[in-house]
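[audit] Reproducing an earlier prediction to check determinism. Same input, same settings, fresh worker. If the tokens differ from the archived copy the diff job will pick it up downstream; this log only records the rerun itself.
[audit] input (492 residues):
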Amino acid sequence: MRDKIDHVVVVMMENRSLDSVLGWLYPDGEPPHIVGADTTSVYQGLQTGDYSNSYDGRALPATKGTVGATGHDGVPPQPLRVPGFDPGEEYEHVTQQLFGSPEHPTKTNPPNGTPAAMAGFAYDYDAFYETWEQLAQVMEAYSPAQLPVLNGLARAYALSDAWFSSVPTQTNPNRAFSLCGTSLGRVNNTWDAVEQFDTKTIWNALPKGTTWGIYYHDIWKDGQCYTQYTFPRCSDVLAEGEIAPIDTFYTKARSGGLPRFTYLEPKWGYGMGDKDGSGFLCGEIFGRIYGSQGNDYHPPTWMGPGEAFLNEIYEALIANNAAWQRTLLVVMFDEHGGTYDHVDPGWGAVTPDGHRGPDGFAFDRYGVRVPALLVSPWIAAGTVFRSPKADVKLDHTSMISTVLSWCGVDPVTAGLGDRVAAAPPFDWVLSDAPRSDVPTFTVPTGYAEQGKDCWLTQETGHLPVGVMRGLVSRSTTLEQLEEHMKAALDDG
């Protein structure tokens, strides 16, 4: 990889399973190129069977294309805002989704090796104010026509149908694994999602002289973006890099001046689904704004801005052809966010360190399958890649392993834990020669403007982004949100 790539760009989106957004990528099941230890020639999408969850005697099928639900006063369905409520994503909820069912609910870590039936998504998603139409949304899967940029990039370059989130839980622990190789034993976000992981990061492990940049949309806390605040040791090596707003990335990409390793933060989306399915709540309580449309694909916000953001990243990179010929873009999703996937993540994940979670959880099983794309002139069109190792799966630590190896650092001695040391790389997916074609994609009219009334700026009067995301993720009713928000304001 070192003789082909000068710039690696990583962007991690939010809260979508593979089936949710790419389950119908190859409806005939036959991509042009399958690579990896598992050479099964069929794309492991939703076309491989009839998948469903049952609830109260009804079968709720995984669909081809999202439908949405009709809102009050005949408000039309919103198929690009599915599911209409933010599903449970904490460790206990994910355990329920994987191992539970309406007949046998469970939120505790099962015995080692227990297979996951993937039958508890609908049961876990249910809330007292949902209609059947709304409940079915957790099983709905977007079609390629609905998400043409994400699906277009996956077809034009490479997608893994066997990449798993690192932990069966929510954002912070998974992002910690993706940047530090460990969550320090944490299986859930703190109540407000504003927390710090005081441990070594990928940036600390890069060789001296390796340029890097973190580019962001939102200030998270104390004048810092999410990544800098949440993983504070990256600031120890700022002499080698920079942390700047996202426009700096676009300028440098178009000029061919990107650093060696670039990490992008999306604009964070969050909010509560309106009870009647007519939208997601975005307004004012106690003089503070809650709810925000992001560009990170996070439910229950609109998907269009995520498509527009991904396309803008890609177009900025291909604008400078000389630099593009030496660039690899890696697109990842941190976790599934409670959306349905049919593949059992399985056990056998390497325990990173001595930390343990609840019920003796040893971080030895993977989280739910999520999208991971490799985009570069060095990637053959129509590639589906899997782990090069038969006994170790691809997860977020594979990004760390690959980037470190590319920079000349042995992942085994990098000091980022046993999971990183064992993580399969993906550099071998690159071809022997670059392509001359440069595919382009069209963002459908209106996608970039979806949810614009809830697009908050740094000047908007609202609680810190992290606090807001924590509030809405643990609130199931407007009344509860009001109570939580008042408590947060009382706490200062």
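[audit] rerun output stored. Observation attached for the diff report: The chain has one domain: 7-490.
[audit] end
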